[in-house]
Specification:
single chain, 251 residues, alpha+beta, Phosphatase 2c, domain 1, five-stranded antiparallel β-sheet
Length: 251
């Protein structure tokens, strides 16, 4: 598969430290965003551990079918969870730390996403922007139950409360998503420092402004800061330039 990618993280306007981390491994077509919590020097440790351990644990998936590759991605996130949780038990200053984790893996003609928390994955295809992941958050649960509208959820005082994270407990259940990749697709991975400042129509407007991944991540960060920069901001853009004729087994 041929693709172009760019990533960036920014402290934002308000925060003094950056607890976000991201990792891009183009030769393995693996991209990860993590948003740590637990205070400066704890949250950033959790997010760094998450991206590093997930990348190592996923390993090579060439030749595997969707189910095997998704299982590998799930296991990698659970492995990161176990390591972070163990550290919260053994280091007093790391107690309560955790992180979101959203990983995108391009595999044959398919994409696989593993997700815990509220860092999101989006797909822009043929002019339509779709959120591929579903937040593990208090407000999302209220939206699902019919108590809040999507717009009310954005401005709710508990909008930053997540219900599932990597490292808070001895195990975690990641969600996984699988789909087919097409030439021209544009993927966005983002922490809530971006999506909390730009709603979907604003994201759509920026993502359609150019097809240059580096310009897009720089513009997204600049827009989030222009609107207040209330949190750390992280974005990865992956543009699909060509898809192979064949596919992974079972896809």
């Amino acid at each position: 598969m041929q693709f172009s990618c760019a990533g960036r993280t920014d402290v934002g306007i308000v925060r003094s430290g950056n607890e976000d981390n991201y990792l891009m491994i183009p030769d393995r077509a693996l991209f990860i965003v993590a948003d740590g919590m637990g205070g400066h020097a704890a949250g950033e440790v959790a997010s760094e551990m998450a991206v590093r351990i997930i990348a190592r644990a996923v390993g090579a998936v060439e030749g595997e079918d969707d189910r095997a590759a998704a299982d590998r991605l799930r296991h990698a996130i659970r492995e990161a969870n176990a390591a972070i949780f163990e550290r919260t038990l053994t280091e007093h200053d790391k107690r309560g730390m955790g992180t979101t984790a959203t990983a995108l893996l391009l595999h044959g003609r398919r994409y696989l996403i593993g997700q815990v928390g509220d860092s999101r994955a989006y797909l822009l295809r043929n002019g339509t922007l779709a959120q591929l992941t579903k937040d593990h958050s208090y407000v999302q649960e209220q939206v699902d139950a019919g108590y809040l509208s999507a717009e009310e959820a954005r401005t709710h005082p508990y909008s930053n409360v997540i219900t599932r994270c990597v490292g808070a407990n001895d195990d975690v259940a990641p969600d996984t998503y699988v789909g087919t990749v097409r030439t021209g697709d544009l993927f966005l991975l983002a922490s809530d420092g971006l999506t909390g400042m730009l709603d979907d129509p604003e994201l759509h407007r920026v993502l359609e402004s150019t097809d240059d991944p580096q310009v897009l991540v720089d513009t997204l960060v600049a827009e989030a800061n222009r609107l207040g920069g209330l949190d750390n901001i992280t974005a990865i853009i992956v543009r699909i330039d060509g898809v192979p004729e064949g596919g992974a087994p079972g896809t």
